[in-house]
Write a structure and sequence with these properties.
about 80% helix, single chain, elongated, mainly alpha
Length: about 160
């Protein structure tokens, strides 16, 4: 079902265009709460990246190279996403604390969020491909073993 048509927006006066759009205080309060949540998630993700780095070092020391490579990748992804979340939170905090530059700060936050969700999209697709490939290997090996054969690698 489509949304009802919106009334056209009034053309702002030249003075309003020069001053820039300014959100009302109720909207700024919502942005402030969102900025605090985004910063919190960013800090927690950064702490998770630090913990993943410790696990990376332990796995590398124990000789589990493939597990260490996975942990290093996880730590790098966590650092990226944490950085983008905290940057978006800072941009929204700046929106709340300044006058006359609301749209500029909002668009900076949107740019960081776009990067975050672009990376999330890629990770989800890659994980789906890995899960389908792993399921295919399990099914293939099950069929081969049922017919008296040996599967390859670890599955043999």
């Amino acid at each position: 079902m489509s949304a009802p048509p919106r009334p056209p927006l009034p053309d702002p006066s030249p003075a309003a265009r020069d001053a820039g759009y300014e959100f009302v205080d109720a909207h700024k309060e919502s942005f402030r709460e969102l900025a605090a949540s985004m910063s919190f998630v960013g800090v927690c993700t950064m702490l998770f990246a630090a913990l993943s780095s410790v696990f990376f070092a332990g796995e590398l020391y124990a000789g589990f190279v493939w597990a260490a490579a996975g942990m290093a990748t996880l730590a790098a992804l966590c650092v990226l996403t944490a950085w983008w979340m905290m940057s978006a939170g800072r941009a929204l905090s700046a929106l709340v604390g300044t006058r006359g530059r609301d749209v500029e700060h909002l668009m900076a936050a949107v740019a960081h969020l776009r990067r975050f969700f672009g990376l999330a999209r890629v990770v989800i697709v890659l994980l789906a491909v890995v899960v389908v490939a792993a399921a295919g290997v399990v099914v293939w090996c099950t069929l081969v073993v049922d017919r008296g054969g040996r599967c390859f690698g670890w599955f043999g």
